[in-house]
Amino acid sequence: MEDIPCCPPDIERAAGTSGIPRIDPRVVRQDFPIFTRTYRDRPLVYLDSAASTQKPAAVIDAVRSFYEEHYANIHRGVYHLSQIATARFEAVREKVRDFIHAASSREIVFTGGTTDGINLVARSYARDHIREGDEIILSTMEHHANIVPWQMVCEERGARLRVIPMTDEGELLIDEYEKLFGPRTRIVAVTHVSNALGTVNPIRRMVRVAHEHGVPVLVDGAQSVQHMPIDVRDLDCDFFVFSGHKMYGPTGVGVLYAKSDWLERLPPVRGGGDMILSVSFEKTVYNKPPYKFEAGTPNIAGVIGLGAAIDYLRALDMRAVAVHEHALLEQATERMRAIPGVRLIGTAPERAGVLSFMLCAVHPHDIGTILDQDGVAIRAGHHCAQPTMQRLGIPATARASFGVYNTDEDIAALIAAVEHVLKVFS
Ligand code: 7TS
Predict the structure, then answer these.
(1) Which of 45, 98, 138, 191 is the most buried (most CB within 10 A)?
(2) 352-362 per-position pLDDT tens digit
(3) Cβ of 224 below 6 Å from ligand 1
């Protein structure tokens, strides 16, 4: 199998940047209608792509034209229009498979997003695999979406969480991770990239360790799939989840990838239409995967938009996306580090997409508010990662996060706005 490097420094080491097309964000911006508008009488400086990315015209148009020209419910119509809608919907399943290098499109389940995918796995897996006294391994840097569903399972089953510790810089302690495994460990659920710190975790290695103990791994790819090439077979994870809206697609749609034998073995958690082969009051026979997990009418137009987002990213080339965003992150990190009074939060050597920071004596919400007045949109808060904040002993951070459309000027605007905040509070 082609060995796909999975984080930007890997990509540069493996290929140089020679065979990789270069992204010109000024050209890319022209694909995004929102950047033709001004915001507070200036060009929009959008540095909150980790929360949600803006949408290219290709995605907006795909959704609109689907509704205008091809719309019908899927998997049920004998009429031509429904068959076209079904074919387009199923073509996206194959696109997703190809994008993340899954072995089969039967391993691709459409969900409502990352949160939905994690809840699905937690509930389905728990039914036959988690008992009283069992253990679930998570990391300190998980988003609440990869904590709370497991906590709910623990409450229901009498199981408990074991947490991988991390350094002050935001790196997981892999030796400590290895020590957490025991006879009661049932699953590992870990984020690929931290949304609060930007840390890229060594997933391949973590999966290898878990598999040596016979334990499956769920990877939260919400903050990785839009920043770097993903090869789920190379990662060898059992489950991989992500959201459409963070990768230039619509809201309300996402993907659960699972190795096919898991999808065969795991029970569905939502019952209804489409997930069955036959129903009687005596007995229901479930459909085969992935349909077994897709009860009811799905977000058909959302899936179509997700397909357009994948086409868009593929045309840019995910290696190019990784190199471009890595360069932005390096530049922003260096320039922020040079400002007295700035404290960077999350300084692991391998990072992607996110720059978290604090300014001495200024609450992150005040940073966010003043930056907004300067036309710079960032997020301030705990980023739905309260345990990460607790570990670092801070209430919140200000966070700039990057996408394919961000430019050097965006970084310059961020730096100028941060200097403005420091002046206001000096
Ligand atoms: N996991 C990670 C790592 C995330 O960053 C997020 C959302 C989720 C799960 C949940 O994704 P959803 O699409 O189901 O909501 N993260 C963020 C963020 O960083 N700012 O706003 C949402």
Answers:
(1) 191
(2) 999 999 998 89
(3) no
In the block, which residue shows the tokens 């995910």?
318
Q: Are 414 and 379 in contact (CB under 8 A)?
A: no
How high is the mean pLDDT of the chain? Answer: 95
Could you tell me if the CB of 192 is within 6 A of ligand 1? no
Q: Is 384 a catalytic site residue?
A: yes
**Ligand 1 centroid distance, CA of 408 (Å):** 26
For atom 4 of ligand 1, which residue has the closest CA? 222
Pick the CATH number of 9-47+317-425 from 3.20.20.140, 2.30.30.210, 3.30.70.20, 3.90.1150.10: 3.90.1150.10
When pLDDT is averaged across residues 146-150 and rounded to a whole number, the result is: 98
Do residues 3 and 235 make contact, with C-beta atoms less than 8 angstroms apart?
no
Residue intervals of the chain classified under CATH 3.90.1150.10 are: 9-47+317-425
How far, in Å, is the centroid of ligand 1 from the Cα of 52?
Answer: 8
115 Cβ inside 6 Å of ligand 1: yes
Total-model pTM: 0.96
Q: What is the phi/psi pair of residue 300, to 5°?
A: -60, -50
pLDDT at residue 16, as a whole number? 55
pLDDT score recorded for residue 76: 80
Backbone angles phi, psi at 397, to 5 degrees: -135, 165
257 phi/psi in degrees, rounded to 5: -95, 135
